[in-house]
Amino acid sequence: MKTQTLIRNLILFVLLLTAALAVQAQEQPDSDSLTIVGPGQRYTEAIPVIDVQTFGYYPAQSPMTLNSSLIPHYASLQSGGGSDPNNPYSVIRKTGPTFLSSGGTAQYEITLNNYESISRTYRLTETIPAGLAYIPDLNNGLTYDANTGTLSWQGELAPGNLDYIIEPTHSLVLPYLDLANFGVVNLCDDFIASGESCDDVSVTFNLGVNGYTTNLYGELLSQLTVSSNGLIFASDTAVSSAYAHNQWLPDAATPGFVLAGLWRDTDMGDAKVQNGRFHAAIISGLIEGHDVFYAQWHDVPHTNNPDLTARHAIALLLSGDVSTSSAQVAAGSAQALVGHVFFIYDNISDPAQLVTQGYTIGIADKLGSRGVTYAYAPCCREAPSPQGYPPAAGTTLHLRPFLFGADTAYQQTFSYAAVVTAPVPETIVSTAVATSSSPDPALAYAWSTHYLYVRRQLFLPLTIGGSE
Question: How many CB atoms lie within 10 A of CB 369?
Answer without folding.
Answer: 17
